[in-house]
Amino acid sequence: MMLRIYVYASGQALVETLVALPLLLSVFMCTLYLGRLHDIEARAIATSRYAAFAAAEQLQTQPVIAIDDQAAARVIAPADTPILQNERWDDARWTNYYDSSWTAPTDQRRLIHNRAAVLVHTTNGALDGGVGAAIDAAIVSARTAALLGRGRIDLANDGLISSEVQIAVAPVGSLPRPLDALALRLTSRTSLLANGWGANSTEQAARRIVAMHPTSGVGSLLEYLQPAIWLASVLEPALLHLCVGRVDPDIVPADRLQSARNAESGTWRPRCS
User: Fold this and answer.
1) Which stretch of 4-13, 68-77, 139-148 has the lowest confidence by average pLDDT?
2) Distance set, CA 63 to CA 55, 59, 69, 133 (Å)
3) Highest-confidence range of 36-45, 134-143, 203-212, 216-225, by mean pLDDT?
4) What is the predicted pLDDT for the residue at 266?
5) pLDDT digit string (tens) for 115-142?
6) CA distance linking residue 33 with residue 56, whole number of Å
7) What is the pLDDT of residues 56-103, one digit of tens each?
8) Which terminus of the chain has a smaller tally of CB atoms within 10 A, N or C?
9) Is 26 helix (H, G, I), strand (E, B) or coil?
């Protein structure tokens, strides 16, 4: 009797396994497919950022359409080196450098059929619409607040660089429904406020920082308290070095010291330096 029950149980487990196996296999294939889509999407995000920053650096030396073509080549053949003039998005690059993992997990067909499936579009100009109005209002507010401080805001809403990357992913007919007819277009956009926003000197960068610093006004008020601070320094000598809102203009990222439209000159430094 126990032997018969054991045989029945074994047969039932085998049937359940055979029924569940296609489902488990489908889940496994879909997981591989989604993982490869995620990898392609990550490359699209990286390319949009690369194209935007490259346009900000090279906008004065070459047209945007050339930068788009060079950035599109980096989708298939990524690199950390600066974009070169001879880089082009052509069929040869797509054929020779295509990532072998960007294929369907079932029949190994390429998820990106041809180079026309990769589009990079970069624009340069002022922000418009609601976003542009918000930027304009923020700049006006910052300029008004700067009157209370010791700096100056000389920025304008005229230097937006926006780069969009679109990668069309071909449908994979061998996947289970509804994924077999899924034609995706992965999109990533990066926007930079460049061109009028660079600073060509540490003084210009420091003026902007001080104008935006919430404690710059407090630092000005402390100047009237110097006698009291001097007396209190007898008990606490460190008060002599008190500097609220200090800005060191010599520590400025290199990308903030290029292509400034409003040049600053002189040796201005913030107080407490």
Assistant:
1) 4-13
2) 9, 6, 10, 28
3) 36-45
4) 44
5) 888 889 888 877 777 777 887 887 787 7
6) 35
7) 777 666 677 777 887 888 787 776 666 655 667 777 777 777 888 888
8) N
9) helix
**Is-cis flag, bond preceding 178, omega within 30?**
yes
- Residues spanned by the domain of 16: 2-197
CB 151 within 8 A of CB 206: yes
- Domain boundary (146, 177, 197) is at 197
128 and 43 in one domain?
A: yes
Q: Two tokens at 209?
A: 């920082």
Same structural domain, 192 and 234: no
- Considering the domain boundaries, does residue 59 fall inside one? yes
- Number of domains comprising the chain: 2
DSSP per residue, 207-234:
HHHHHH-TTHHHHHHHGGGHHHHHHHTT
